[in-house]
Amino acid sequence: MVSWYEYMHPKILSIFEQSNQFLKVAEQHESFSKLISNVKEATKLYHLDALEYIANLQNSPLNSFSELANESYLERLYSSSLKDLDKEIISEIGQSSDFEKLPLNVQSKIIQYIKFIFITIILNLLSSYIYDQRGIILQSLKDMTEPSQVKSFVRNGSSKYPRDVLKGLRVVSGKNVNLRTEPSMKSEIILQLDTGTLIEVLDKTNRSWLLVEVSNSEEVIQGWIARRYTVHFK
């Protein structure tokens, strides 16, 4: 049995290894400022204080955070311990108020520090963010019983939620739709899906069938569903 979080986390890793589009969207989303606030709180649990100093700088690199995200997988991290680096940054920022006026070696330390924080803390918070957003979608779909309700929700949701939250998602628009072991009406039925069930598409190359994953009581199940009984976010 795989929990929804365990199921989501490697998918989020894949998103960030391939692109930084999610953060670019998130930076424009109302939840991003709360996300950064949560990161600040999380760093305090590790007795780290430099992020607050960095955030208060003019021209702070946190203002272009998405550009750093993609690079963080490609570069070697600062060799010192994170706590030592934290103390060095606080000391070297001193009374400075502008990131761009700091010595280049200090700027470099700050960038590496943020990347370290990104990998160790922010990725998990973003995973939780997507998990939470999908939870909201699931809750909204819970009481929908008519295809027209589902179609209206999907149409409106396409502009309401960040693209990477919706990526690969479809919603069952039929009633008692069969999830099958193979892309065939003659194959074994795994279970029946209600109207409004949220599914994630794994393979859509078949013109009539979709290979999907669905969360069922904390368990993730894979199977085939007839494409015509689903609607997708655009």
Q: Which properties best describe this structure?
A:
single chain; 234 residues; alpha+beta; SH3 type barrels; 5-stranded antiparallel β-sheet; two-stranded antiparallel ribbon; 9 helices
Task: Provide an overview of this structure.
This protein starts with a helix and ends with a strand. A hairpin with a 2-residue loop joins β5 (209-216) and β6. With 234 residues, it is of the alpha+beta class. The strands form two sheets. Strands 6-5-4-1-7 form a five-stranded antiparallel sheet. The chain has a two-stranded antiparallel sheet with strand order 2-3. 50% of the residues lie in helices and 16% in strands. The chain folds into two domains: 4-139; 142-232, SH3 type barrels. It has helices spanning 4-18, 21-26, 32-45, 50-55, 65-71, 82-93, 104-141, 147-160, 163-166, and strands at residues 169-172, 177-180, 189-193, 198-203, 209-216, 219-226, 230-232. The protein is elongated and about 70 Å long.
Furnish the topology, listing elements before pairings.
Blueprint: H1 4-18, H2 21-26, H3 32-45, H4 50-55, H5 65-71, H6 82-93, H7 104-141, H8 147-160, H9 163-166, E1 169-172, E2 177-180, E3 189-193, E4 198-203, E5 209-216, E6 219-226, E7 230-232
Helix pairs in contact: 1-7, 3-7, 6-7
